[in-house]
Design goal:
Helices cover 48% and strands 4% of the residues. It is mainly alpha-helical. Among the domains are: 106 residues, 434 Repressor (Amino-terminal Domain); 66 residues, no CATH class. The protein has a 3-stranded mixed beta sheet, with helices on both faces. The longest helix is centred in the middle third of the chain and has 16 residues.
C-alpha cells in the first residue's frame, strides 16, 4: 500500500458518505461497478452495497479501495465531494469530452493533490468582470494581461494562465472531441484543451477558457447574465483574441513591418508567426483593429499562407500546448504525493498523463515505523 493510516471499522462515520465517495472516484475513472468488483475480488452486488452505504468496510478493505481508486484513505471519510461541472465548446453536443469523462477525470486528479495539501497555487483575488460588449471584452483582456505582466506575445500560455489560478492541460482527445473545457474547483480552475488541434487553435481555446475562469463561471449558470449564451460565448472569443493579440502591441508591430517594406500579406505572415495564433483568428482580428479593410480581410481569409512563404522570410512556426502538456506546479505536486507514499507509482504515472514513465520515477520516501502504530490517528 502507498497510503497508510490505521482506522477501526467503528471509527469510520457515515458509511453513506464513504459509499458516495467510492462511487464518485470509480465514475471519475470511467469504471463500471463490475470492474471495481473484479479488482477487489468481490461480487458486483458487494460493491453496490458499499456505494449505497449498506455495507461497511474495515481498514484493510478501505486501504485497498483507496489504492485502486488513487485516493488517500481519509478522502473517503470526509464530507461530500464538491460538485464538478464540465463545460464544452459551444455548439458541440455529445462530444468525446462528455462521453469518456476526461474533463472530470483531470479535475478529480487536481482535487486529489489539492486535498492532500501538495498543490500550492491559489486563485488571485479578482472581481467579477462585466462582459456585455466588445469594449468589455477588451478591457477584461487588458486586465488579465496586466496581471500576467506581459505586453507582447504570450509564448508560454500554460505559465501565463497559471499565474491567474488556472491549471491548463493539453491532451490528445481525438478529431471529434470538443475544443476545450473548464472546471471550477474551490481553490483553482482547471482547463482541458484538445491537443489534437493545431497550435493556434489550442492557444485560442485556452484563452477562451481563461475568460470563463475570470468570469467566475460555473459554466451552466447564466442567471445573472442579461445576454444569451451564444452572444456571451462570442464575447469570450473576443476576449481571447485580445488576450493573444493585444491592440497596442499588434498595432506597433504592424507599423514596424509595413514601414520596413512588408505588404499587408507579408506583415500578416510575420504577425501570425510571432503571436502564435491561427490564420483566420489573425486576419479577423486585424479587421477588428482597423489595420486592414474588409476587402483585404476577405482576400486574406481565403488565401492562407504556404510553408514556402514562412521559409522565405526565415520564419518558423512554433509549438505551444503540444500534448501531453500538464502544468509544472501540478507535476511537482503529484511527485510530492508519490514520494510521500500517498499515491502509488502506477497512480502517479496515470495522473501525469503520459509525460513520465514508471522508470522515470524516483524511489519514494521510506514509511516511518510509527505509520504502522495501532494508536495512530487518521491523517487530516
Amino acid at each position: 500500500m502507498c497510503y497508510f493510516s490505521t482506522m477501526k471499522t467503528n471509527d469510520i462515520p457515515k458509511w453513506k458518505t464513504v459509499g458516495q465517495r467510492v462511487a464518485s472516484a470509480r465514475k471519475a475513472l470511467g469504471w463500471p461497478q463490475a470492474v471495481l468488483a473484479d479488482k477487489l475480488g468481490l461480487d458486483r452486488t458487494a460493491v453496490t452495497k458499499i456505494e449505497s452505504g449498506d455495507r461497511g468496510v474495515d481498514t484493510l478493505e478501505l486501504s485497498i479501495i483507496a489504492e485502486f481508486l488513487g485516493r488517500p484513505m481519509d478522502w473517503f471519510v470526509r464530507g461530500e465531494a464538491d460538485a464538478i461541472v464540465s463545460r464544452r465548446d459551444s455548439g458541440v453536443a455529445n462530444s468525446v469530452l462528455d462521453e469518456d469523462h476526461r474533463v472530470d477525470r483531470v479535475a478529480t486528479d487536481v482535487k486529489v493533490v489539492v486535498d492532500m495539501g501538495h498543490l500550492r497555487i491559489r486563485r488571485p483575488a479578482r472581481k467579477r468582470f462585466r462582459l456585455q460588449s466588445l469594449a468589455d471584452a477588451e478591457r477584461m483582456a487588458e486586465a488579465a494581461r496586466g496581471f500576467i505582466a506581459v505586453s507582447g506575445p504570450l509564448r508560454d500560455m500554460t505559465g501565463a494562465v497559471e499565474s491567474l489560478g488556472l491549471l491548463a492541460f493539453s491532451l490528445d482527445l481525438g478529431e471529434q472531441a470538443a475544443v476545450g473545457a473548464y472546471v471550477s474547483l474551490e481553490s483553482v480552475g482547471v482547463a482541458l484543451v484538445n491537443g489534437k488541434l493545431p497550435t493556434g487553435r489550442r492557444r485560442f481555446a485556452l484563452a477562451h477558457e481563461l475568460g470563463h475562469h475570470l468570469l467566475l463561471d460555473d459554466y451552466d449558470s447564466y442567471s445573472d447574465v442579461s445576454i444569451g449564451r451564444v452572444e456571451r460565448e462570442q464575447l469570450i472569443d473576443a476576449f481571447a483574441a485580445h488576450v493573444l493579440l493585444p491592440r497596442a502591441s499588434v498595432a506597433r508591430r504592424w507599423r514596424e513591418l509595413t514601414k520596413s517594406g512588408e505588404d499587408v500579406r507579408g506583415a500578416s505572415v510575420h504577425v501570425v508567426t510571432e503571436y502564435g495564433v491561427s490564420w483566420s483568428a489573425l486576419v479577423n482580428h486585424l479587421r477588428n483593429l482597423d489595420l486592414v479593410g474588409e476587402a483585404e480581410r476577405e482576400r486574406l481569409v481565403v488565401e492562407k499562407p504556404t510553408k514556402r512563404e514562412f521559409l522565405e522570410r526565415g520564419l518558423t512556426l512554433w509549438e505551444d500546448l503540444a500534448p501531453p502538456k500538464v502544468p509544472k506546479s501540478y507535476v511537482v505536486s503529484v511527485m510530492a504525493a508519490y514520494c510521500k507514499n500517498k499515491i502509488s507509482a502506477r497512480r502517479a504515472v496515470e495522473m501525469l498523463y503520459g509525460t513520465i514513465d514508471m522508470a522515470d520515477l524516483p524511489e519514494p520516501d521510506q514509511i516511518p515505523l510509527e505509520a504502522f502504530s495501532s494508536d495512530r490517528e487518521p491523517s487530516e
